[in-house]
Each structure stands twice: as C-alpha cells, then as structure tokens.
Write a sequence for this structure.
C-alpha cells in the first residue's frame, strides 16, 4: 500500500468539514493556483498547497502533511492530470467529502494541445486575428451569467478523473492571465456554494482579481512588444500559454513537457537550431540543472537566462501570481534585449 494512502487513512479520522468559523478548507496543487485561490479568499481564509517551492509538478512524492491537507479539504482546486497525473488517485482516495475543481475542465478556461516536437513551427497570428478566448476576460471579465451565489457546477467540477480528455492538453494553463481570471471566477462560485455567508466577498474578490489581470495583461503586452520576432528556446515546453497570450512564440524546447531530459536526437535537433544563428536566448529553470543549456549553447553567441513558471522564488500568497507574470516578462526582456 502506498505511503500517501496509509497516511491518508490515519488522517481521515481527524477530518472535518470546515474551519471552526465555517470557512471551507481548501487544498491546491501548485503555488500559482494557491495564489489565485488566496486572492479569491482574501479577508476570509487561506488555502493550503501541496507542492512546496522548487518541487517538480510532473513528479512529486507526497508527504503525510499533504495527505492530511487533502483529507481535510472541503474544496480541492488543481490544474488536473494534464499537469500532475500522480495526484488524481490521491485526490479520489483521500478528499472523499470535498468538491473537486479541475481547472482544465472548468468554464472559461482555454486549453491548448501539447506540442510534440522540440523545434516548434513558427506561431504567427494573422493581421487582426482575435485570440481573446478569454483574453476579453483578462481585460475586463464580465461575470454576467456567472452568478457567484447560484452556479451549478455538478458534473463539471466534481467528477471522476478516469475520463478521456481526447487529445493531450498542455497543463501549464495558469500562465495566461485570462485563464487566471476565469479560474478565480470558478473558484468564487465553488466557494459560494460551500460558504453562502461569504459569497459576496468571494465574488467581489474574483471581480477585483479579473480587473487586475486585465491591467496586468496590458502592462506585460506593452513591455514585450519590442521583443516580437526574437527567437528563443526554453528548457521544457511550459510557456505555450504565455507565448499565446503575449504573441511571443518560442522556437523550441530542449526537454519535453514533463521535464525529462531529452535523448541525443532531440539535443541534436535543438543544437542545430541554436547553431543556425537565429536564436537570441536559451532559458533554463530553477527546478533543473543549467548544464544541458550550457552544453547546447557552447561555442555560440546565444545568451542564457532563467524562467520561473511556478513562483519558486516568490513568497506565497495573493501577490505571487501577478509577481510571477511580471517576473517572466522581466526575464524574457532582459535576455532577449541583451541586458541579462
């Protein structure tokens, strides 16, 4: 029997349905999601998070405290198995009385398919192409028709994880501020059903967060405009949503989405891309060794930088998410403009 299941069995005996003051207990998967939920719960409560700073969401061994968090939860908010496939079974086994909100399937969230190849095809938006799926949400999210007090989310939020999603989806959906705004609205609705007494606060917080995301998206889009057309490669393919939101496409990734180190053929293809002379910058990440990036860029004029898509170096809380997006913009700008 798995360690998390043994720990969870012991924890279930102590599980309660809410805090002493009736505020729902909320468990989240990663720090960016915890930050979004914390913004919605501001002034009411604080959500917990399973993955600590610096942990790899694609491969993580749960601790007894993580099992306790799940077994105590009234609401579990997670991206879904597209990001943390190992978490689906513990959620079903331990969070037995909780509402499960899987963001990849939640209303208003746009998902993108996984990109299979290391060197990517050019991502070009035609003149006037409208890709505001929910970019309209990030730039002034309209909650009409999304009643925080009466939304029925059965079936969409509280479902088995063995369902077939069809084509593989990119799980890094939080890196688009429009998705973050939609996620906040979904969280507010779920919390309002669990805690009607604080429904107005959750709704107002979600609306405020959506407005902030609109301002953030405009700010970052303006900052990144001068960088359009400057090719770069990333360590692993985690940034597609950021690229899509701000029209800043990567030329390729060194590793696959799960962060597993690539084989010789993939390294050779990326090195050829770098050696062609068109790449301006190659990015590594705090969770991975920079040695592979150094090997690929050796003997070239390609600059190197670091991207943190999980907020590993940022203090947890409501401010983490906007700080994360601004930090990515700053790091892209520094490397691609030659200021790193």
């Amino acid at each position: 029997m798995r360690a998390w299941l043994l720990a969870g069995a012991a924890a279930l005996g102590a599980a309660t349905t809410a805090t002493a003051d009736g505020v729902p207990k909320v468990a989240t998967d990663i720090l960016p999601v915890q930050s979004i939920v914390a913004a919605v719960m501001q002034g009411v409560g604080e959500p917990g998070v399973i993955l600590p700073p610096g942990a790899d969401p694609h491969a993580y061994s749960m601790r007894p405290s993580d099992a306790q968090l799940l077994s105590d939860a009234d609401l579990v908010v997670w991206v879904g198995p597209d990001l943390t496939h190992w978490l689906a079974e513990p959620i079903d086994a331990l969070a037995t009385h909780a509402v499960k909100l899987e963001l990849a399937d939640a209303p208003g969230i746009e998902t993108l398919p996984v990109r299979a190849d290391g060197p990517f095809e050019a991502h070009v938006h035609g003149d006037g192409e409208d890709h505001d799926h929910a970019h309209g949400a990030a730039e002034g999210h309209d909650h009409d028709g999304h009643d925080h007090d009466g939304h029925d989310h059965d079936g969409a939020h509280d479902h088995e994880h063995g369902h077939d999603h069809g084509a593989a989806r990119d799980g890094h959906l939080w890196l688009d501020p429009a998705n973050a705004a939609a996620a906040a609205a979904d969280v507010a609705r779920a919390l309002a059903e669990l805690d009607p007494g604080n429904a107005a606060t959750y709704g107002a917080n979600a609306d405020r967060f959506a407005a902030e995301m609109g301002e953030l998206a405009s700010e970052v889009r303006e900052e990144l405009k001068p960088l359009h057309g400057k090719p770069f490669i990333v360590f692993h393919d985690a940034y597609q949503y950021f690229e899509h939101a701000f029209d800043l496409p990567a030329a390729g990734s060194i590793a696959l989405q799960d962060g597993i180190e690539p084989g010789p053929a993939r390294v050779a293809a990326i090195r050829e891309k770098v050696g062609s002379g068109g790449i301006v910058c190659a990015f590594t990440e705090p969770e991975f060794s920079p040695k592979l990036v150094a090997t690929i860029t050796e003997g070239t004029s390609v600059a190197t930088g670091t991207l943190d898509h999980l907020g590993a170096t940022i203090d947890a809380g409501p401010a983490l998410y906007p700080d994360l997006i601004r930090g990515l913009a700053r790091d892209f700008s520094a490397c691609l403009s030659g200021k790193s």
In short: The first strand starts at residue 26 and ends at 28. DSSP finds eleven helices and eight strands in the chain.
